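Figure 6 in text form: structure in, sequence out.
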């Protein structure tokens, strides 16, 4: 492909590819079946520096580049979407600190995340505020040098396993979205409760938690940016994290495509491999074209994150929208190519189809992405 990856980025990708084939791929079906968080995979990623990819070297990391994050997420998602979320959410939960934190906050909060000693999570959504993030009800009241948080967050990926949690809360409820502030909670000093884990269609080994905050104290030193800057921070973070969801969708589609292609070469019907039938060949031609188009959009968006390009918001939304719609279509087609075998859990394409669905929903539904793109065009 035409993207100018550095030798270091290619080396990181190849290392991840090897680890995924050896350690992650053999676990993928079991992780899905048992719906258990793969702590062993988290440790594997920590030990091999993968959780340090979202962070620049000065904060203990190994990259800090969105392109490198996307390369890692894509490689892992080819085998296991659940495991790819461990890296994707490490980036998502850390972006608010990297985007809005002071130098002191970055130097204090990032190294334990970069080393994998802790994993991060991002708590924005609530039961009554999904696409309408400004409608949140979680409150943070200041008393001297600390804030006290009360409220509930919904659908928080990794919220039950995180050691560091970025929470968005109303510090001035009368100011609507201008009254939202962002806080970094550290589990040992600001403990939150994970009161419920959701049972889901896909990404079943990734814990999706309801989090409750009851009189949770947070030092004022852990507020990110000014009071009232939280909504701007949240949007800036989503611009940076959406290419990663595009990369996850891309990886899921590639994993399903690779499997279906190999299957079609072997599967005999009417005395010949089904890959020799033009109907199947046309499906593969369309799939390969859609994947290639999505790859270019995802890495274009990731490059714009790294270059802080002015049109990042639009292109990041396009990448997430196109890649996730593509992944849903491609995985559905791959199930169709396998026929009856595609529908049973002995074969991985049905899992990939279930996993692909969430990429159209989280980090802004694809309907919201269209709103974002249209606003950018009409501004």
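Output sequence:
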């Amino acid at each position: 492909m035409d993207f100018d990856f550095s030798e270091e980025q290619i080396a990181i990708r190849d290392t991840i590819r090897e680890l995924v084939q050896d350690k992650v791929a053999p676990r993928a079906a079991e992780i899905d079946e048992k719906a258990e968080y793969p702590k062993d995979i988290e440790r594997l990623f920590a030990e091999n520096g993968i959780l340090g990819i979202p962070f620049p070297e000065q904060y203990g990391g190994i990259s800090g580049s969105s392109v490198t994050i996307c390369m890692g997420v894509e490689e892992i998602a080819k085998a296991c979407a659940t495991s790819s979320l461990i890296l994707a959410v490490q980036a998502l939960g850390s972006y608010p600190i990297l985007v809005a934190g002071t130098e002191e906050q970055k130097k204090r909060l990032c190294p334990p995340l970069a080393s994998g000693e802790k994993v991060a999570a991002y708590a924005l959504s609530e039961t009554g505020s999904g696409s309408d993030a400004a409608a949140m009800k979680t409150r943070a009241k200041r008393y001297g040098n600390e804030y006290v948080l009360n409220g509930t967050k919904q659908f928080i990926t990794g919220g039950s396993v995180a050691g560091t949690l970025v929470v968005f809360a109303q510090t001035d409820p009368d100011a609507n979205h201008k009254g939202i502030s962002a806080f970094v909670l550290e589990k040992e000093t600001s403990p939150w409760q994970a009161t419920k884990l959701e049972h889901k269609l896909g990404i079943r080994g990734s814990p999706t938690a309801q989090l409750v905050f009851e009189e949770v104290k947070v030092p004022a030193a852990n507020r990110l940016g000014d009071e009232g800057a939280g909504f701007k921070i949240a949007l800036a973070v989503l611009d940076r994290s959406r290419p990663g969801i595009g990369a996850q969708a891309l990886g899921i589609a590639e994993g399903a495509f690779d499997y279906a292609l190999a299957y079609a070469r072997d599967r005999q019907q009417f005395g010949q491999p089904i890959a020799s039938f033009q109907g199947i060949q046309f499906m593969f031609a369309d799939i390969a074209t859609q994947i290639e188009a999505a790859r270019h959009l995802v890495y274009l968006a990731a490059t714009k994150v790294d270059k802080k390009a002015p049109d990042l918001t639009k292109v990041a939304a396009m990448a997430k929208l196109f890649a996730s719609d593509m992944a849903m279509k491609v995985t559905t087609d791959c199930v169709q190519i396998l026929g009856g075998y595609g529908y049973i859990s002995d074969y991985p394409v049905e899992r990939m189809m279930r996993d692909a669905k969430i990429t159209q929903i989280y980090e802004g539904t694809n309907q919201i992405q269209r709103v974002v793109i249209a606003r950018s065009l009409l501004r």
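Caption detail: The beta strands are 120-123, 139-143, 146-157, 164-170, 180-186, 193-197, 208-219, 223-224, 268-269, 272-273.
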